[in-house]
């Protein structure tokens, strides 16, 4: 592993770097010079610092050579560290590699030995070995190229053949890998099919099919085929119908007629990146494929687009934004502008580019909460879907909602066939399997497993799973945000999820149900109770507020979503509505803004989250109003939807963080700090007790202890406590811990330093502040990259298939200035 500072210095001395990095180096040297001068002055004034070097010039030289080991302030140290990272391409490049994987015509067809026994399948249903055909650049020192791993994840089903009878539309998916140093690396792949014109390959598939049909006709099936035949009749009318194992719908597609059919083979183009900017990578790969010139015309070469994404597009700095230009949908069109933004460190939630909107659309609110509970308790979680991208979205989304905790165990949202043996490991994991994999059907029956069928919106929970604290109120707040942004999803189950409590025995039942409630009768009963409670709240609010809701200025009444059994909360809700009108009036007269520490907040459960945590001032006044306006809602472009998804992500993630802040607002009082040195503590921390769990649990509501007692034993919680203790010795504590502690301080500031454990539910109030930071980055761009320009002197007029690109221009970084 290269030393990062040495790697940065070598990059600067060995070749000319881009203008953007030269500016960074200039800022870095200025900061170094100022620090060295301050060290020199302090030495000349007779300071007794043991680390200083006698003499002004010696101090300056030493400070310069050591990259300023002793800056004058923590702020300068933070800036210095960030500048060092920006000067290193490891931390600044958007993409490390561009990879092409597919069929190697030189080696021909090879069976994929990692795909298992597939001789009982038609040759078109078998997996063959794929290879990296090319990758650019050849290698980067901070991320060595893993040919086998990247090829396996870029084409997770192996090399497949299809005919024109199949669906051969390109499909995009993301994937994640964990390097030896524990750092996660992301890949983005577009899989498409190209026509095979090589007669040898076509003849080989035809020969394999003839052999397969002959074996079926002669009864020389393998053991696997014999087992399949026992489950259903096998037709001998081949090749006309080609019904194998009773799979009639796919029988015609599984036959390849060499005289009539066109043969297609899978190929993939991929980006390997350090940061998960999924939308930008997807847009780049899809449009790059569309820009493949299939006939002479206007446009620039594929190499120009790839060079731009590899060497000219940089990652934004924390708290900054950058405008980049991606390939258009057609070669003759101008490039598409896209803004990439990066949240600030220690003050905002980390980057999440995958849309949480899709997570809730795929699974529903209750299923997401149940899945989150299983992940928090470090259960074995297996995801199943026919779409690899769905597996990745669910995996990345659910682990991001753990913040401030980090999933420390096996994580493989797309598990290739070669790694199916990982499923037997007796350790916690989050893994995803394609629905066509036999292992997904076998393992899905395990009793101790959390099995999620994404396509069917079904979750099978482990036995004796405790319920998440304040689960119903938590779900209601999430549903309010989903309604606020008009997220399209299956709403049929939501009334029963929010109000069908008779089946649960209360909102905080100790054991969660393993099935999602359904049925027309339950939904009808829930809707009636929901309407009765809403009318009750409106009546109470009118009785004390003087006038109808429509006559109260500045108050937007939303449908109440609350636990119907908790009628004792209704007066508090009504009181909040009255005080909210006063707060709005105070703000109009120059009072404190929403979210300020002086603002008094109610602890009422649910029902008015749209007003407390407002993001959009044009919110639907009711669910019926939302439905009526949805037809008039303008269609967003792909880029506009991306920005909207980031807003939705922020609102939802703040709600989840708010739950953890309230759950553990007093955790630091129960941390057992060591009285020994750091090295001694590190060597013995596995045997030391770092947290007083029994005292912490005694302060919690009894019906929450079932969940909390198990979570306190998790590795995630232990890591957070370890980081809290390490903060005593570290000059810069863990960034996620800093944000978590900061939110706890804000909560105490609102309720007082001596606040006790709250038994009622308080919604999130801070998402608007973080939303403003995001909007500012979108509206005030810090850096702009110039659009891709032609780098080839002569380019090909058109191609029949996606070609191998010019190595000479893509394997090295040229000196260019492409930043404004």
TrEMBL record:
Question: Which spans does this entry mark as compositional bias, Low complexity?
Answer: 34-57
Pinpoint the UDENN domain residues. 112-731
UniProt feature, compositional bias: Polar residues: 58-81
Species for this entry:
Drosophila mojavensis (Fruit fly)
Q: What is the protein name for this chain?
A: Uncharacterized protein, isoform D
Gene3D superfamilies per record: 3.40.50.11500
Q: What SMART domains is this protein classified in?
A: dDENN (SM00801), DENN (SM00799), uDENN (SM00800)
The region called Disordered is annotated at 34-83
Which Pfam families is this protein grouped with? dDENN, DENN, uDENN
Molecular function (Gene Ontology), one example = small GTPase binding
């Amino acid at each position: 592993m290269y030393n990062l500072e040495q790697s940065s210095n070598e990059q600067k001395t060995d070749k000319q770097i881009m203008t953007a990095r030269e500016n960074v180096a200039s800022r870095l040297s200025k900061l170094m010079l100022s620090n060295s001068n301050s060290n020199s002055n302090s030495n000349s004034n007779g300071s007794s610092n043991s680390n200083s070097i006698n003499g002004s010039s010696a101090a300056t030289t030493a400070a310069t050579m050591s990259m300023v080991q002793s800056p004058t302030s923590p702020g300068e140290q933070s800036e210095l560290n960030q500048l060092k990272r920006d000067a290193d391409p490891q931390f600044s490049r958007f993409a490390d590699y561009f990879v092409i994987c597919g069929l190697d015509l030189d080696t021909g067809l090879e069976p994929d030995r990692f795909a298992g026994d597939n001789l009982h399948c038609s040759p078109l249903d078998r997996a063959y070995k794929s290879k990296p055909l090319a990758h650019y650049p050849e290698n980067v020192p901070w991320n060595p190229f893993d040919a086998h791993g990247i090829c396996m994840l870029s084409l997770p089903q192996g090399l497949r053949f299809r005919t024109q009878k199949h669906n051969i539309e390109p499909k995009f998916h993301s994937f994640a890998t964990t390097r030896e140093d524990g750092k996660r690396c992301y890949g983005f792949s577009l899989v498409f099919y190209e026509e095979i014109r090589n007669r040898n390959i076509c003849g080989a598939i035809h020969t394999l099919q003839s052999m397969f049909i002959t074996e079926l006709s002669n009864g020389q099936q393998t053991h696997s085929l014999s087992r399949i035949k026992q489950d259903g009749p096998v037709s001998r009318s081949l090749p006309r119908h080609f019904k194998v194992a009773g799979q009639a719908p796919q029988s015609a597609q599984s036959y390849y007629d060499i005289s009539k059919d066109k043969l297609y083979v899978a190929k993939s183009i991929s980006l390997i990146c350090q940061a998960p900017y999924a939308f930008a990578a997807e847009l780049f790969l899809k449009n790059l494929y569309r820009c493949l010139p299939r006939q002479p015309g206007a446009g620039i070469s594929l190499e120009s687009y790839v060079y731009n994404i590899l060497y000219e597009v940089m990652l934004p700095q924390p708290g900054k934004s950058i405008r980049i230009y991606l390939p258009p949908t057609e070669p003759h069109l101008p490039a598409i502008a896209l803004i990439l933004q990066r949240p600030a460190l220690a003050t905002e939630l980390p980057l999440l580019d995958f849309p949480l909107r899709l997570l809730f659309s795929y699974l529903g609110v209750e299923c997401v909460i149940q899945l989150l509970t299983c992940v928090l308790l470090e259960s074995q979680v297996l995801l199943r879907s026919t779409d690899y991208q769905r597996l990745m979205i669910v995996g990345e989304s659910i682990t991001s909602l753990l913040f401030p905790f980090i999933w420390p165990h096996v994580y493989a949202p797309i598990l290739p066939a070669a790694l199916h043996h990982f499923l037997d490991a007796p350790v916690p994991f989050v893994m995803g399997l394609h629905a066509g994999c036999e292992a997904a059907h076998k393992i899905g029956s395990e009793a101790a497993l959390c099995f999620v069928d994404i396509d069917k919106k079904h979750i099978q929970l482990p036995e004796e799973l405790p319920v998440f604290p304040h689960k119903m109120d938590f779900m209601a707040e999430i549903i309010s945000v989903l309604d606020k942004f008009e997220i399209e999803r299956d709403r049929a189950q939501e009334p029963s999820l929010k109000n069908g409590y008779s089946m649960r025995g209360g909102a905080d039942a100790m054991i969660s149900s393993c099935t999602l409630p359904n049925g027309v009768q339950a939904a009808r009963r829930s809707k009636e109770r929901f309407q009765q409670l809403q009318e009750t709240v409106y009546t109470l609010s009118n009785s004390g507020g003087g006038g109808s809701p429509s006559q109260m200025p500045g108050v937007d009444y939303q449908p109440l979503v609350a636990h119907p059994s908790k009628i004792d909360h209704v007066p508090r809700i009504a009181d909040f509505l009255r005080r909210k009108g006063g707060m709005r009036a105070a703000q109009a007269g120059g009072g404190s803004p929403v979210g300020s520490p002086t603002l008094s907040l109610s602890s009422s459960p649910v029902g008015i989250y749209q007003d407390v945590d407002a993001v959009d001032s044009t919110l639907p006044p009711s669910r019926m109003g939302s439905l009526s306006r949805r037809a008039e809602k303008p269609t967003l472009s792909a880029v506009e939807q991306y920005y909207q998804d980031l807003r939705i992500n922020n609102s939802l993630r703040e709600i989840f963080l708010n739950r953890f802040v309230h759950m553990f607002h007093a955790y630091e009082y129960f941390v057992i700090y060591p009285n020994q040195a750091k090295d001694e503590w590190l060597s013995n921390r596995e045997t030391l007790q770092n947290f007083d769990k029994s005292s912490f649990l005694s302060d919690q509501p009894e019906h929450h202890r079932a969940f909390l007692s198990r979570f306190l034993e998790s590795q995630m919680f232990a890591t957070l406590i370890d980081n809290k203790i390490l903060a005593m010795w570290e000059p810069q504590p863990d960034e996620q811990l800093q944000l978590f502690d900061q939110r706890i301080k804000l909560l105490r500031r609102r309720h007082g330093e001596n606040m006790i454990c709250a038994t009622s539910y308080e919604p999130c109030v801070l998402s608007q502040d973080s939303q403003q930071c995001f909007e500012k980055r979108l509206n005030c761009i810090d850096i702009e990259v110039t659009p891709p320009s032609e780098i080839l002197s002569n380019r090909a007029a058109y191609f029949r298939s996606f070609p191998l690109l010019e190595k000479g221009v893509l394997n090295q970084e040229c000196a260019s200035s492409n930043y404004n």
